[in-house]
Amino acid sequence: MLRRTVRLSALLVVGWLPGTSQFELRSVAGTVIDRKGNALQNADVQLENTVTLSITTYITGKDGRFHFVRLRDDIDFTLKARYRTLWSKPRTLSQFDSPKHREVELVIPMK
After folding, report:
1. Taking the complete model, does pTM exceed 0.70, yes or no?
2. Which residue ranges form the domains of the chain, and what is each CATH number?
């Protein structure tokens, strides 16, 4: 009886230990604009995973909009946009940010 209890206890402890990370998914969307607030079509928006350094790219449409979904909330991401030869300032999506969906404006410093 004692062995059975020990085995059951061991199984419960092993099942409780976090063998796989517990995370939720989040998303980010927004608009690439110039200094005057005009939406920029065909801007490249890059999302970099700061752990793996992998980059996902989204090309904006006529409305300048972009979106990235199914992002792990236990990882930081860097978000930036390029229009022609100009870059926006990078924005960090921290794992400590609480919203599950974030709206971001990326401004291209055009004259």
Report:
1. yes
2. 24-108 (2.60.40.10)
